[in-house]
Amino acid sequence: MEQVFEQKLMQAAQAVEEQVDAELNRLEKLTEEDVEKFRAQRLESMKQEHKKRQEWLANGHGEYEDLPGEKELFDITKKSERIVCHFYRDSTMRCKIVDKHLEILARKHIETKFVKLNVDRAPFITERLHIKTLPTIALLIDNIVKDKIIGFTDLGNHDEFSTEILEWRLGRGGAIDYKGDLKSPPDDNEKKKTINLFGKKPKTIRNGMGGDDDDDDD
């Protein structure tokens, strides 16, 4: 058994060595013209990335914005390709949990516009999107609602979900450029960036549009 393991280990090491040799050979064959061409392509790519970043910042990306009403959301869809919109109500305490996480993610993922909209100021779009549970996070891509995160069901169904879990879920919906593994969520037990505004143990929740009915176990 030990000999089989050593043999497989040697085979794996040999395969890596062959890949390294192949890459070195490829680099050795590059002409000065090839290097200059690669450098020019990389420089142009960096310029485009910088330009896009400046456009995002000019459109208010990097901040978590509370919109005055529906019109402002429609205006944003004309400028930003990807939008994360949190539909909330002041009396629903779990919306404040979402706020804390989205404030962090807005600063991290400037490729996406992060906003919040009070449902009492947006009756038309709230009805049109069939928003019946708060909080609800709508993921808009190219002016189309591609996905919705309703309540905390997709986030562990408790108050103390981590920012990383929400980030992963947004990545699954295509709303942000997620760098991790989209196939499986990060381990909540290892992530410590949890936010609990209530100081209570995690609990399953049911929440509707009625306000603070999801915080009824005092």
TrEMBL record:
The keyword Ribonucleoprotein does not apply. Residues 76-151 form the Thioredoxin domain. Residues 179-218 are annotated as: Disordered. Keywords: Coiled coil. Residues 179-193 have a biased composition (Basic and acidic residues). The keyword Electron transport does not apply. Gene3D superfamilies: Glutaredoxin. Residues 6-33 form a coiled coil. PANTHER family: THIOREDOXIN DOMAIN-CONTAINING PROTEIN 9 (PTHR21148). This is Thioredoxin domain-containing protein 9. It comes from Rotaria sordida.
